[in-house]
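Work package 3, deliverable 3.1, input record:
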Amino acid sequence: MIELGLELSERDGWSVLAVSGEVDVATAPRLRERLVGLVGEGRTRIVVDLEKVDFIDSTGLGVLVGALKRVRTNDGDLALVCTGPRILKVFEITGLTKVFAIHRSVDEATAAA
Amino acid sequence: MKVDVVRLEVPALPEYLALARMVVAGTARIDPLLDDERVDDLRLIVSEACTNAIEAMRDRASSNDADGPDADGTDRDRAVAMRVECRLGASRVEVVVEDRGNGFDPEALDALPSVTDPSRLTVERGLGLPLIRTLSDEYDITSGSTGTRVWAALYAAAAAPPPDAL
């Protein structure tokens, strides 16, 4: 099985999910399941930290879009942390930099709201 | 003109996707036509094309199979191959991904709302082909009831695509 790291921590009332590895059609279901689980537990203020993600394609983006929709319908919010040019480029091409709040650090993401 | 060809045929299943990316990126690095950023573009193009193939075969399996798919959404007994080909030419790297799924209408994607439209949040698919279009220098997608073929080419920095390119 291809490794996808998912590490959860709490910061100032936010659930911070640090993702590592490659997010594609093989691994995205695990990310989706985790995010759906968080919202199900009532944790609707979520930061997804993508700093240790080596690769993400449109399937991974789709999961993040789905999670954003899900937290918003529950009066929550979802922010991303990403500085890697390779990963940022995928968000830029798909226009998703206009959809997501993308921050340079977890501190910045949790302070922004 | 020199063209080296590397072909890979793997089951159209999610767990083979990383391997397909690795083989194409590794092939592209044999002849340093493309810099690292362009190899990353190629990796993403392959991932998107193969994901379309995997989903097409999954849809076909679930529409043909009375038993239905396994619990994880796939059906190993009926997993059919996808073909991935990487061609190293003198001035460009080409990649071809083929499946034998039910095909789709590439034009239909143009009807999706823009990503900045709030209603677009209801659509989690359809981001893959725009990535292929943007990241390749040339591409061609043919799709019909017998399958889909995605072709994309990336040119070396010094070599521009021919003026009559798509």
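Chain A touches chain B through 26 residues (CB under 8 Å).
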